[in-house]
Amino acid sequence: MPEGQGAPAAPLAAPSDSERGLSWPAARPPPPFLAPGSPGSPAPRRGAVRASFPQKLAEALSSQYALNVFVAGLLFLLAWAVHATGVGKRDLLCFLTALMLLQLLWMLWYVRRSAAHRRLIRPKDPYAGARWLRGSVTLFAVVTIILGCLKMGYFIGFSECLSATEGVFPATHAVHTLLQVYFLWGHSKDIIQSFKTLERFGVIHSVFTNLLLWANSILNESKHQLNEHKERLITLGFGNITIVLDDHTPPCNCTPPTLCPAISHGMYYLYPFNIEYQILASTMLYVLWKNIGRKIDSHQHRKMQFRLHGVLLGSALGLTALAATIGVVVVYLIQIGRSKTKSEAALIMFYLYAIILLMLMGVAGLAGIRIYRLDEQSLDESKNPARKLDADLLVGTASGSWFISWGSILAILCSESRPPYTWYNLPYSILVVVEKYIQNLFIIESIHREPGKLSEDIRTLRVVTVYSGNATRLPSSCLKNGPTAADVAPQASEMPPVANGNTHLREVGGGKEKEDKSWEGAPGPACHPCFLQGNAQRRVLRNIAAFLFLCNISLWIPPAFGCRPEYDNGLEEIVFGFEPWIIVVNLAMPFSIFYRMHAAASLFEVYCKI
């Protein structure tokens, strides 16, 4: 077509065959040279930027909406905690019930719309909503529903003097829990590509609704712990601290009289499970929110498998630690508060137990990091919202216990009088900081690795030498530490096509024959012995992960069920003041408790990947 009749004029001519040499292969036409204003120039890029702008705007708008809801809910919680005038528990429960009902409406709409389009192929995030994580959420949700039933029974017993919201809230929460668990099982892996703006608001509303329910549970449990703590301080001899119990018993009689005290006492043993349920659900929903509109790569996800073979040592040590933890917690709760001597003995017992366990965990974490240093393997840096959230939560929640530990260290160093048990508190507080630092390094590096895969050189090159029709495969240690791929493999022109992932060598002249004979005389099992390669390395790492998993479960149990020496030793209250230190502990302790459960979940994932 002549120029000027629809054919675009090319500003530059393609080079000739003699000019392009090796830079323009003959089997492939040269790429077109585009003028700045021609089709296919930077216009699609600008269009992509314009297309992504509404998504970023919707993300910013939805996050700001959720933060405002969260701040309003926190103010309701604060007003109820400090007995603000005009704001009571009824107002707080009405606000939380309205948030749950709004989330229920959105989840029902989403589930119905997904069922109507169930035949469509939807993208999924293979890393989000692992089956073991959904199973954990289900287990905690069952306990949460039992807790709701106890609250409804408590409301029935005191129905004469309690507001109706005290009965409506647990019933709504039970329905909310059932539907949310169903939603997470069916849709936690979804990558939403339609109605993205509406879905962003719905998902982020669900995230912060669960966070407010988590904060409400923490406040209820903390009030109960604080009352017990004030009573114990008298037995430890801290009479200069003002004891004012925060009693919330309704001003009427319960029918039957023995039912309500039993329910009230039993509810607080279920709060730790309810707290873990709310925070796990919010993290899964947050990953769903981050995946909205996301473009996933075609990288195939390797399914994790749970195997118990070869982890006898790690499991035995971990179960021993778990059994010791249960014994220590039982003795601690029995002895603390009985007398000053028994309380000090209980504190010393707990500190000795925790010091030994934290030292063993630190050594195990250092061993795992050392193995990774010896194993030169590239990390997986692909975009993964679930993995990034895991790493951020590990570091963020660890700061809670670090805050308490540094407060204890400062109180010990600055106090004028030091009871004997405080000298056990000092190494305990230091080890809490060091152990979590080491464990975070081990977990973060583990979740960025693929330990179950073969190394890169073995994956890309399996050399088989042929001697009179008999094939002998080179051991992996030779490829790792011996000759490189360039030293072993022949030139590309001499190699046959790859079959079944294995590259075959063949005799092509005297030179190759000599090389074959030289390899024939090499030892078969290994060329150079290495430290913990292959299955041995994976077995050691699995034992470390199993041991740390059970130890984190063990360290989750004491603070979750009332064994909190940060409350009971009394030294920090003298140095910092009673109310400031109690505020610090009440704010930081929930993060410290969640850290142990989240670290255990991450270590379980690490164990399954190895």
UniProtKB/TrEMBL annotation:
Region Disordered: start-end pairs: 1-47, 499-519
Recorded superkingdom: Eukaryota
Transmembrane region(s): 65-86, 92-111, 132-156, 268-289, 310-334, 346-372, 544-562, 574-595
Cellular compartments annotated: Cell membrane
Molecular function GO terms recorded: proton channel activity
GO BP term, pick one: inner ear morphogenesis
Record-linked Pfam families: Otopetrin
InterPro entries attached to this UniProt entry: Otopetrin (IPR004878)
Regions of compositional bias (Basic and acidic residues) in chain numbering: 504-519
Topological type in the membrane: Multi-pass membrane protein
Key word Cell membrane present: yes
Residue ranges, compositional bias (Pro residues): 27-42
Annotated keywords: Cell membrane, Hydrogen ion transport, Ion channel, Ion transport, Membrane, Transmembrane, Transmembrane helix, Transport
Similarity comment text for this entry: Belongs to the otopetrin family.
PANTHER family reported for this sequence: PROTON CHANNEL OTOP (PTHR21522), PROTON CHANNEL OTOP1 (PTHR21522:SF19)
Identification of the protein by name: Proton channel OTOP1
UniProt source species: Odocoileus virginianus (White-tailed deer)
